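Final report, closing paragraph on structural work. Over the funding period we assembled a curated collection of sequence-structure pairs, and we close with a single example.
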Amino acid sequence: MKDNLVLKVRDATYELREWNGRNESGYKPVCDKVLVLPDKSMSRTSGGIEMPETTQDRQGVAAVTGVVIEVGPQAFAYDGDRLTRWEGWRPQPGDRVCFERYAGQEYPGLDGEVYRIMQDRSIGGVLGVPAALKQAEAA
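Its predicted structure, as stored:
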């Protein structure tokens, strides 16, 4: 099944981001942090109307999906209350994830993209079949 190129969330439309397999942001998450490349707000509406830059920025901060670029060494080691060890599958770089609206902090990467560094507990789910499971099935 082919992935959609565009995601519609409420009144905003987002271009799904791709991951090339390398972290070109210049950032390395530490502790329980996760580096995510959020989906990009479209510059035009579906009717072709050009959106003001302030609207694009506001929708970009409100993005709720993106691609995991890198995971900190202690991310997903414990559950949300930090008392119980996490068991089972963990999100990996290349996975498309859903996260809390306005989660984390935005940082401009060396490659010109805007990234978010957020706590692992801000990620609520993985969209589709995770990259790690695809690789395991292919092997």
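The longest helix spans residues 53-61. The beta strands are 6-9, 12-15, 33-38, 40-41, 65-71, 96-99, 105-108, 114-119, 123-126. We thank the funder for supporting this effort.
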